[in-house]
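Reading a protein record of the kind used here takes little practice once its layout is understood. An example of such a record is reproduced below.
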Amino acid sequence: VQLQASGGGLVQAGGSLRLSCTSSGRPFRNYAVAWFRQAPAKEREIVAATNWSGRVTYYADSVKGRFTISRDDVKNTVTLQMNSLKPQDTAVYYCAAAESRPLRWSAEDMYDSWGQGTQVTVSS
């Protein structure tokens, strides 16, 4: 499956952004999907993830209560709604898909496909 991430941009602290990950090729509905991010000079980290049905979700502690991951398999899209953004949320955000649910959501080698990344910049 090929992934396309979009929706990044520049926003002030406290603002919101909505990222979308759209798949092409094979249907999205059988894939677990995650969002990762990589800030300058830092390692890539898991942000949020959802299993194939959307009933199981995972959030990094740093985004709990502020970010929401959801999926619309009719539109082949997984969305990351980001509210109450902070400057430390500034990063390139990537979506990734796995045919089998990863044993650990953060295990990058468990994901089969990656999107190209979208820049999120939060100003203070």
Observations:
- The CA atoms of residues 16 and 83 lie 4 Å apart.
- The mean pLDDT is 95.
- The chain is about 0% helix and 50% strand.
- The radius of gyration is 13 Å.
